[in-house]
Protein backbone atom coordinates (compact mmCIF):
# COMPACT_ATOMS: atom_id res chain seq x y z
CA UNK A 1 0.00 0.00 0.00
CA UNK A 2 1.49 3.36 -1.00
CA UNK A 3 2.52 5.57 1.89
CA UNK A 4 3.09 8.73 -0.07
CA UNK A 5 0.66 11.39 -1.21
CA UNK A 6 -2.32 10.86 -3.51
CA UNK A 7 -0.75 8.51 -6.04
CA UNK A 8 -1.85 8.72 -9.69
CA UNK A 9 -3.11 5.13 -9.65
CA UNK A 10 -5.37 5.83 -6.67
CA UNK A 11 -8.49 7.61 -7.88
CA UNK A 12 -10.37 10.28 -5.95
CA UNK A 13 -13.21 7.80 -5.38
CA UNK A 14 -10.79 5.21 -3.96
CA UNK A 15 -9.19 7.80 -1.69
CA UNK A 16 -12.63 8.90 -0.52
CA UNK A 17 -13.54 5.30 0.33
CA UNK A 18 -10.25 4.53 2.09
CA UNK A 19 -9.82 7.85 3.90
CA UNK A 20 -13.08 9.76 4.25
CA UNK A 21 -15.43 6.87 5.06
CA UNK A 22 -13.46 5.49 8.06
CA UNK A 23 -12.84 8.98 9.46
CA UNK A 24 -16.47 9.82 8.74
CA UNK A 25 -17.53 6.83 10.85
CA UNK A 26 -15.52 8.24 13.75
CA UNK A 27 -17.16 11.63 13.34
CA UNK A 28 -20.57 9.95 13.19
CA UNK A 29 -19.92 8.46 16.62
CA UNK A 30 -18.62 11.79 17.92
CA UNK A 31 -21.94 13.49 17.23
CA UNK A 32 -23.96 10.52 18.47
CA UNK A 33 -22.22 10.65 21.87
CA UNK A 34 -22.36 14.44 21.90
CA UNK A 35 -26.13 14.52 21.32
CA UNK A 36 -27.37 11.41 23.12
CA UNK A 37 -28.01 13.16 26.45
CA UNK A 38 -30.88 15.07 24.83
CA UNK A 39 -32.73 11.71 24.83
CA UNK A 40 -31.29 9.92 27.87
CA UNK A 41 -31.22 13.10 29.98
CA UNK A 42 -34.55 12.34 31.68
CA UNK A 43 -33.59 8.76 32.72
CA UNK A 44 -30.23 10.05 33.99
CA UNK A 45 -31.87 12.89 35.92
CA UNK A 46 -34.41 10.50 37.49
CA UNK A 47 -31.87 7.82 38.41
CA UNK A 48 -29.25 10.18 39.87
CA UNK A 49 -31.51 13.02 41.06
CA UNK A 50 -29.95 15.65 38.78
CA UNK A 51 -31.13 19.26 38.49
CA UNK A 52 -30.86 21.34 35.32
CA UNK A 53 -27.44 22.67 36.35
CA UNK A 54 -26.17 19.16 37.11
CA UNK A 55 -27.43 17.82 33.79
CA UNK A 56 -25.94 20.78 31.96
CA UNK A 57 -22.60 20.28 33.71
CA UNK A 58 -22.56 16.53 33.03
CA UNK A 59 -23.35 16.99 29.34
CA UNK A 60 -20.97 19.92 28.88
CA UNK A 61 -18.03 18.03 30.44
CA UNK A 62 -17.81 16.36 27.02
CA UNK A 63 -17.01 19.80 25.57
CA UNK A 64 -14.53 20.56 28.36
CA UNK A 65 -12.51 17.39 27.78
CA UNK A 66 -12.87 17.81 24.03
CA UNK A 67 -11.76 21.44 24.15
CA UNK A 68 -8.83 21.10 26.55
CA UNK A 69 -7.29 18.38 24.38
CA UNK A 70 -7.34 20.51 21.23
CA UNK A 71 -3.88 22.06 21.65
CA UNK A 72 -2.02 18.76 22.19
CA UNK A 73 -4.22 17.30 19.46
CA UNK A 74 -2.99 19.85 16.91
CA UNK A 75 0.64 19.08 17.74
CA UNK A 76 0.00 15.33 17.54
CA UNK A 77 -1.82 15.61 14.20
CA UNK A 78 0.98 17.65 12.66
CA UNK A 79 3.70 15.34 14.03
CA UNK A 80 2.18 11.86 13.73
CA UNK A 81 -0.67 12.15 11.27
CA UNK A 82 -4.44 11.72 11.69
CA UNK A 83 -4.58 7.94 11.26
CA UNK A 84 -2.63 6.88 14.34
CA UNK A 85 -3.84 9.78 16.48
CA UNK A 86 -7.49 9.02 15.79
CA UNK A 87 -6.99 5.30 16.47
CA UNK A 88 -5.50 6.02 19.91
CA UNK A 89 -8.14 8.60 20.82
CA UNK A 90 -11.04 6.30 19.95
CA UNK A 91 -9.61 3.73 22.36
CA UNK A 92 -9.82 6.43 25.06
CA UNK A 93 -13.45 7.08 24.06
CA UNK A 94 -14.17 3.35 24.38
CA UNK A 95 -12.84 3.34 27.94
CA UNK A 96 -14.96 6.41 28.72
CA UNK A 97 -18.10 4.71 27.38
CA UNK A 98 -17.45 1.65 29.54
CA UNK A 99 -16.98 3.79 32.67
CA UNK A 100 -20.12 5.82 31.89
CA UNK A 101 -22.19 2.67 31.36
CA UNK A 102 -21.11 1.19 34.71
CA UNK A 103 -21.22 4.42 36.76
CA UNK A 104 -23.07 4.34 40.10
CA UNK A 105 -22.34 7.95 41.03
CA UNK A 106 -22.42 11.40 39.45
CA UNK A 107 -18.62 11.58 39.75
CA UNK A 108 -18.06 8.44 37.66
CA UNK A 109 -20.64 9.62 35.12
CA UNK A 110 -18.64 12.84 34.81
CA UNK A 111 -15.30 11.03 34.49
CA UNK A 112 -16.70 8.74 31.80
CA UNK A 113 -18.25 11.65 29.91
CA UNK A 114 -14.98 13.62 30.09
CA UNK A 115 -12.99 10.67 28.70
CA UNK A 116 -15.51 10.32 25.88
CA UNK A 117 -14.99 14.01 25.09
CA UNK A 118 -11.20 13.59 25.04
CA UNK A 119 -11.54 10.46 22.92
CA UNK A 120 -13.55 12.28 20.28
CA UNK A 121 -11.42 15.43 20.39
CA UNK A 122 -10.03 14.47 16.98
CA UNK A 123 -13.33 13.46 15.36
CA UNK A 124 -13.57 16.45 13.03
CA UNK A 125 -10.03 17.84 13.12
CA UNK A 126 -8.39 14.50 12.30
CA UNK A 127 -10.81 14.17 9.38
CA UNK A 128 -9.99 17.68 8.15
CA UNK A 129 -6.27 17.00 8.54
CA UNK A 130 -6.59 13.75 6.57
CA UNK A 131 -8.34 15.67 3.79
CA UNK A 132 -5.57 18.30 3.66
CA UNK A 133 -2.86 15.64 3.17
CA UNK A 134 -4.75 13.28 0.84
CA UNK A 135 -6.69 15.67 -1.42
CA UNK A 136 -5.91 18.83 -3.45
CA UNK A 137 -6.88 22.18 -1.90
CA UNK A 138 -9.74 22.77 -4.35
CA UNK A 139 -11.49 19.69 -2.91
CA UNK A 140 -11.22 20.72 0.76
CA UNK A 141 -14.48 22.70 1.22
CA UNK A 142 -16.64 20.05 -0.48
CA UNK A 143 -15.04 17.10 1.33
CA UNK A 144 -15.15 18.94 4.66
CA UNK A 145 -18.88 19.42 4.12
CA UNK A 146 -19.34 15.73 3.35
CA UNK A 147 -17.48 14.78 6.54
CA UNK A 148 -19.76 17.14 8.46
CA UNK A 149 -22.66 15.22 6.97
CA UNK A 150 -21.51 12.09 8.84
CA UNK A 151 -21.82 14.10 12.04
CA UNK A 152 -25.36 15.04 11.10
CA UNK A 153 -26.20 11.37 10.65
CA UNK A 154 -24.80 10.81 14.14
CA UNK A 155 -27.20 13.36 15.60
CA UNK A 156 -30.08 11.60 13.84
CA UNK A 157 -28.99 8.27 15.30
CA UNK A 158 -29.07 9.88 18.76
CA UNK A 159 -32.81 10.65 18.52
CA UNK A 160 -35.57 8.22 17.48
CA UNK A 161 -33.24 5.17 17.22
CA UNK A 162 -32.03 5.73 20.80
CA UNK A 163 -35.60 6.36 21.99
CA UNK A 164 -36.61 3.08 20.34
CA UNK A 165 -33.66 1.24 21.93
CA UNK A 166 -34.69 2.52 25.36
CA UNK A 167 -38.05 0.75 24.98
CA UNK A 168 -36.36 -2.64 25.26
CA UNK A 169 -33.00 -1.84 26.86
CA UNK A 170 -31.56 0.51 29.47
CA UNK A 171 -29.32 3.48 28.77
CA UNK A 172 -26.49 1.39 30.22
CA UNK A 173 -27.07 -1.32 27.58
CA UNK A 174 -26.97 1.36 24.89
CA UNK A 175 -23.55 2.50 26.10
CA UNK A 176 -22.26 -1.07 26.24
CA UNK A 177 -23.14 -1.41 22.56
CA UNK A 178 -21.61 1.97 21.70
CA UNK A 179 -18.34 0.99 23.41
CA UNK A 180 -18.04 -2.07 21.16
CA UNK A 181 -18.80 -0.02 18.03
CA UNK A 182 -16.29 2.67 19.02
CA UNK A 183 -13.48 0.15 19.48
CA UNK A 184 -14.34 -1.40 16.10
CA UNK A 185 -14.15 1.94 14.30
CA UNK A 186 -10.78 2.72 15.90
CA UNK A 187 -9.27 -0.46 14.43
CA UNK A 188 -11.01 0.19 11.11
CA UNK A 189 -9.16 3.52 10.83
CA UNK A 190 -5.82 1.95 11.73
CA UNK A 191 -6.19 -0.93 9.26
CA UNK A 192 -8.05 0.58 6.31
CA UNK A 193 -6.71 4.15 6.03
CA UNK A 194 -3.40 4.14 4.10
CA UNK A 195 -0.34 5.58 5.88
CA UNK A 196 0.85 8.89 4.43
CA UNK A 197 4.41 10.17 4.04
CA UNK A 198 3.51 13.18 6.24
CA UNK A 199 3.27 10.80 9.22
CA UNK A 200 7.08 10.51 9.00
CA UNK A 201 7.90 14.00 7.80
CA UNK A 202 5.81 15.57 10.55
CA UNK A 203 8.24 14.33 13.21
CA UNK A 204 10.83 16.92 12.13
CA UNK A 205 11.29 19.55 14.84
CA UNK A 206 10.79 19.20 18.56
CA UNK A 207 8.36 20.43 21.17
CA UNK A 208 9.82 23.94 21.11
CA UNK A 209 9.07 24.26 17.39
CA UNK A 210 5.58 22.88 17.90
CA UNK A 211 4.81 25.38 20.65
CA UNK A 212 6.30 28.19 18.56
CA UNK A 213 3.79 27.29 15.85
CA UNK A 214 0.98 27.67 18.37
CA UNK A 215 2.37 31.08 19.28
CA UNK A 216 2.17 32.18 15.64
CA UNK A 217 -1.46 31.13 15.50
CA UNK A 218 -2.59 32.78 18.73
CA UNK A 219 -0.81 36.05 17.89
CA UNK A 220 -2.53 36.29 14.53
CA UNK A 221 -4.92 39.25 14.39
CA UNK A 222 -7.09 37.74 11.64
CA UNK A 223 -7.53 34.61 13.75
CA UNK A 224 -8.85 36.68 16.65
CA UNK A 225 -11.13 38.65 14.38
CA UNK A 226 -13.10 35.58 13.32
CA UNK A 227 -12.81 33.48 16.50
CA UNK A 228 -15.60 35.12 18.61
CA UNK A 229 -18.35 34.63 16.00
CA UNK A 230 -17.22 31.05 15.39
CA UNK A 231 -17.22 30.31 19.13
CA UNK A 232 -20.67 31.72 19.87
CA UNK A 233 -22.43 30.65 16.66
CA UNK A 234 -21.23 27.05 16.65
CA UNK A 235 -20.99 26.81 20.44
CA UNK A 236 -24.62 27.82 20.93
CA UNK A 237 -25.68 25.34 18.27
CA UNK A 238 -23.79 22.55 20.04
CA UNK A 239 -25.15 23.53 23.46
CA UNK A 240 -28.80 23.71 22.39
CA UNK A 241 -28.91 20.85 19.92
CA UNK A 242 -26.77 18.58 22.13
CA UNK A 243 -28.92 18.94 25.27
CA UNK A 244 -31.42 21.76 25.72
CA UNK A 245 -33.55 21.21 22.62
CA UNK A 246 -35.07 18.08 24.18
CA UNK A 247 -36.01 19.62 27.56
CA UNK A 248 -37.32 22.77 25.79
CA UNK A 249 -39.66 20.66 23.67
CA UNK A 250 -40.89 18.88 26.79
CA UNK A 251 -41.16 21.86 29.16
CA UNK A 252 -42.07 24.74 26.84
CA UNK A 253 -43.89 23.03 23.98
CA UNK A 254 -45.46 20.43 26.30
CA UNK A 255 -44.67 17.45 24.07
CA UNK A 256 -44.59 13.80 25.25
CA UNK A 257 -41.30 11.84 24.93
CA UNK A 258 -42.15 10.21 21.58
CA UNK A 259 -43.04 13.60 20.05
CA UNK A 260 -39.86 15.12 21.50
CA UNK A 261 -37.83 12.37 19.81
CA UNK A 262 -39.57 13.01 16.48
CA UNK A 263 -38.90 16.75 16.71
CA UNK A 264 -35.26 16.04 17.53
CA UNK A 265 -35.07 13.72 14.54
CA UNK A 266 -36.32 16.53 12.29
CA UNK A 267 -33.85 18.93 13.92
CA UNK A 268 -30.97 16.57 13.30
CA UNK A 269 -32.06 15.71 9.77
CA UNK A 270 -31.96 19.44 9.02
CA UNK A 271 -28.60 19.63 10.81
CA UNK A 272 -27.29 16.89 8.51
CA UNK A 273 -28.50 18.71 5.41
CA UNK A 274 -26.97 21.93 6.72
CA UNK A 275 -23.63 20.22 7.30
CA UNK A 276 -23.66 18.72 3.82
CA UNK A 277 -24.48 22.15 2.41
CA UNK A 278 -21.58 23.93 4.10
CA UNK A 279 -19.07 22.77 1.51
CA UNK A 280 -21.24 23.90 -1.38
CA UNK A 281 -22.08 27.21 0.29
CA UNK A 282 -18.41 27.90 1.08
CA UNK A 283 -17.44 27.01 -2.47
CA UNK A 284 -20.13 29.36 -3.80
CA UNK A 285 -18.96 32.22 -1.59
CA UNK A 286 -15.36 31.66 -2.70
CA UNK A 287 -16.33 31.73 -6.38
CA UNK A 288 -17.95 35.16 -6.00
CA UNK A 289 -15.02 36.52 -4.00
CA UNK A 290 -16.48 36.46 -0.47
CA UNK A 291 -13.81 35.78 2.16
CA UNK A 292 -14.01 34.18 5.62
CA UNK A 293 -15.16 37.39 7.31
CA UNK A 294 -18.13 37.69 4.95
CA UNK A 295 -18.95 34.00 5.33
CA UNK A 296 -18.97 34.25 9.13
CA UNK A 297 -21.05 37.42 9.08
CA UNK A 298 -23.65 35.63 6.97
CA UNK A 299 -23.58 32.51 9.19
CA UNK A 300 -24.04 34.50 12.40
CA UNK A 301 -26.76 36.75 11.01
CA UNK A 302 -28.97 33.95 9.68
CA UNK A 303 -28.58 31.96 12.93
CA UNK A 304 -30.26 34.84 14.76
CA UNK A 305 -33.54 34.08 12.97
CA UNK A 306 -34.35 30.67 14.58
CA UNK A 307 -32.86 31.77 17.92
CA UNK A 308 -35.22 34.75 18.10
CA UNK A 309 -38.14 32.55 17.05
CA UNK A 310 -37.34 30.20 19.97
CA UNK A 311 -37.09 33.07 22.45
CA UNK A 312 -40.46 34.41 21.29
CA UNK A 313 -41.91 30.85 21.34
CA UNK A 314 -43.29 31.19 17.82
CA UNK A 315 -45.18 27.97 17.01
CA UNK A 316 -43.50 25.95 19.81
CA UNK A 317 -45.03 22.64 18.64
CA UNK A 318 -44.10 23.17 15.00
CA UNK A 319 -41.29 21.31 13.31
CA UNK A 320 -40.18 24.14 11.04
CA UNK A 321 -38.46 26.36 13.65
CA UNK A 322 -36.23 23.53 14.84
CA UNK A 323 -35.61 22.46 11.25
CA UNK A 324 -34.45 26.00 10.50
CA UNK A 325 -32.22 25.99 13.57
CA UNK A 326 -30.64 22.69 12.52
CA UNK A 327 -30.11 23.90 8.97
CA UNK A 328 -28.31 27.09 10.03
CA UNK A 329 -26.54 26.23 13.28
CA UNK A 330 -23.31 24.90 11.77
CA UNK A 331 -22.76 27.25 8.83
CA UNK A 332 -19.87 28.92 10.67
CA UNK A 333 -17.79 25.78 10.03
CA UNK A 334 -17.22 27.23 6.54
CA UNK A 335 -14.26 29.12 7.98
CA UNK A 336 -12.12 26.02 8.66
CA UNK A 337 -10.72 25.59 5.11
CA UNK A 338 -9.71 29.27 5.15
CA UNK A 339 -7.99 28.82 8.51
CA UNK A 340 -6.15 25.75 7.22
CA UNK A 341 -5.04 27.49 4.02
CA UNK A 342 -4.05 30.65 5.90
CA UNK A 343 -1.52 28.85 8.10
CA UNK A 344 -0.29 26.32 5.48
CA UNK A 345 -0.36 22.52 5.83
CA UNK A 346 2.60 22.58 8.23
CA UNK A 347 0.51 24.45 10.79
CA UNK A 348 -2.97 23.39 9.67
CA UNK A 349 -3.57 20.88 12.45
CA UNK A 350 -2.61 23.34 15.18
CA UNK A 351 -4.55 26.18 13.55
CA UNK A 352 -7.80 24.22 13.28
CA UNK A 353 -7.49 22.71 16.74
CA UNK A 354 -6.63 26.12 18.20
CA UNK A 355 -9.96 27.43 16.94
CA UNK A 356 -11.64 24.23 18.07
CA UNK A 357 -10.22 24.67 21.57
CA UNK A 358 -11.94 28.03 21.88
CA UNK A 359 -15.12 26.72 20.25
CA UNK A 360 -15.61 23.81 22.63
CA UNK A 361 -14.63 25.74 25.72
CA UNK A 362 -17.29 28.20 24.59
CA UNK A 363 -19.78 25.35 24.11
CA UNK A 364 -18.94 24.04 27.60
CA UNK A 365 -19.59 27.46 29.14
CA UNK A 366 -22.77 28.06 27.14
CA UNK A 367 -24.28 24.64 27.84
CA UNK A 368 -23.61 24.94 31.57
CA UNK A 369 -24.69 28.61 31.64
CA UNK A 370 -28.04 27.81 30.02
CA UNK A 371 -28.70 25.20 32.73
CA UNK A 372 -27.60 27.56 35.51
CA UNK A 373 -29.94 30.29 34.24
CA UNK A 374 -32.84 27.83 33.95
CA UNK A 375 -32.22 26.78 37.56
CA UNK A 376 -32.84 30.36 38.70
CA UNK A 377 -36.57 29.65 38.29
CA UNK A 378 -38.31 27.03 40.44
CA UNK A 379 -39.33 23.78 38.80
CA UNK A 380 -43.02 23.45 38.04
CA UNK A 381 -45.25 21.37 40.35
CA UNK A 382 -45.88 18.76 37.66
CA UNK A 383 -42.16 18.46 36.87
CA UNK A 384 -39.99 20.13 34.29
CA UNK A 385 -38.21 23.47 34.21
CA UNK A 386 -39.88 26.87 34.00
CA UNK A 387 -40.37 28.28 30.46
CA UNK A 388 -39.18 31.71 31.62
CA UNK A 389 -35.79 30.17 32.38
CA UNK A 390 -35.43 28.93 28.81
CA UNK A 391 -36.57 32.31 27.49
CA UNK A 392 -33.92 34.16 29.49
CA UNK A 393 -31.13 31.69 28.70
CA UNK A 394 -31.82 31.61 24.95
CA UNK A 395 -32.18 35.40 25.01
CA UNK A 396 -28.64 35.66 26.39
CA UNK A 397 -27.41 33.52 23.48
CA UNK A 398 -29.06 35.94 21.03
CA UNK A 399 -27.30 38.86 22.72
CA UNK A 400 -23.92 37.13 22.52
CA UNK A 401 -24.34 36.42 18.79
CA UNK A 402 -25.17 40.09 18.18
CA UNK A 403 -22.13 41.27 20.15
CA UNK A 404 -19.75 38.97 18.26
CA UNK A 405 -21.16 40.15 14.93
CA UNK A 406 -20.41 43.72 16.01
CA UNK A 407 -16.84 42.61 16.81
CA UNK A 408 -16.55 40.99 13.38
CA UNK A 409 -17.58 44.27 11.78
CA UNK A 410 -14.65 46.13 13.42
CA UNK A 411 -12.36 47.27 10.58
CA UNK A 412 -9.25 45.13 10.18
CA UNK A 413 -6.93 48.05 10.95
CA UNK A 414 -8.36 48.47 14.45
CA UNK A 415 -6.99 45.08 15.50
CA UNK A 416 -3.35 44.84 16.50
CA UNK A 417 -1.12 43.23 13.89
CA UNK A 418 1.18 40.34 14.72
CA UNK A 419 3.76 38.27 12.82
CA UNK A 420 2.05 35.38 11.05
CA UNK A 421 3.17 32.65 8.64
CA UNK A 422 0.81 34.03 6.01
CA UNK A 423 -2.37 36.12 5.68
CA UNK A 424 -6.09 35.50 5.30
Q: What does this 3D model show about the protein?
A:
This protein is mainly alpha-helical and 424 residues long. It is built from 18 helices and no strands.
Round the mean pLDDT to the nearest integer and report it: 80
N- to C-terminal separation?
Answer: 36 Å
Tell me the overall shape: globular
**Number of β-strand runs:** 0
Largest sheet entry: none
Portion in strands = under 5%
Radius of gyration: 21 Å
* pLDDT < 50 stretches: 1-9, 413-424
Report the helical percentage.
over 70%
What string, H for helix and E for strand, traces the elements in order?
A: HHHHHHHHHHHHHHHHHH
What structural category arises from helix and sheet content?
Answer: mainly alpha
Q: Tell me the number of helical segments per DSSP (H or I, 4 or more residues long).
A: 18
Would you spell out the secondary-structure blueprint of this structure?
Blueprint: H1 12-35, H2 37-48, H3 52-68, H4 70-80, H5 82-102, H6 106-119, H7 125-134, H8 140-157, H9 160-165, H10 171-192, H11 198-201, H12 207-218, H13 221-251, H14 257-287, H15 292-311, H16 320-328, H17 336-374, H18 387-408
Helix pairs in contact: 1-7, 1-8, 1-10, 2-13, 3-6, 3-17, 4-5, 4-17, 5-6, 5-7, 5-10, 7-8, 7-17, 8-14, 12-17, 13-14, 13-15, 13-17, 13-18, 14-16, 15-16, 15-18, 17-18
